[in-house]
Amino acid sequence: MTVQRMPVDGVPNVYLRALGRTMNKAIDRGCDDFSREEKMRMAILSVKYLINRDKPKQQTPDDVENLMNFIFMVDEYLGQFTPREFMRVFPVDKEYDGEKYGSKDYFYTMNYLKSLDMDKPIGRKNLSSFLWDYMNRTMLKFSAVKMDALSDVQRARGEKDWFEQFAEDNDLTLYSMFEDGSGQFIQNTKTGEISKVQKPRPRYLRRLK
Questions:
Q1: Residue 152's CB: how many other CB atoms inside 10 A?
Q2: pTM
């Protein structure tokens, strides 16, 4: 892999600056690839950067493609972790009421981890299934960023995004929201019907008879 030096001066995001410094150290020693430890550090910094970045209001097709490629790189580096290492960096959320609500929780995740070799790298191919059964808020945010980026790529290519395709395949109705000077509106994407969003009345206000 060819490594290009990353500018860090003037970069406002602390995680992005730290990521740049890690990349530049490899270049300074004349390395054409990163060590496993560097990849793991870059994965941690990249995840923190991605879940804390402000999404630009305007993005070019190149912007969204580059972001998706960056996320694919992060997936590759996250796959370098073993489950034991992953637990140290992204601890399992201590939520224990999954059985009550029919959802995954700490106990579910720990039972899932017992089925794995805790000292074998997860691997890029297995990462999605691993994260599906691994309860951690940071990883949930990262997965949401990844799905949003994928939607942006599909729309930039003139395709339906993954959720629109899912809704079409399952005959679900989607709504889009927009606003003008008179308020906010929602539009039924199937029928085109538009309805104005009514703001809820504060509880302390009551209609006089």
A1: 19
A2: 0.72
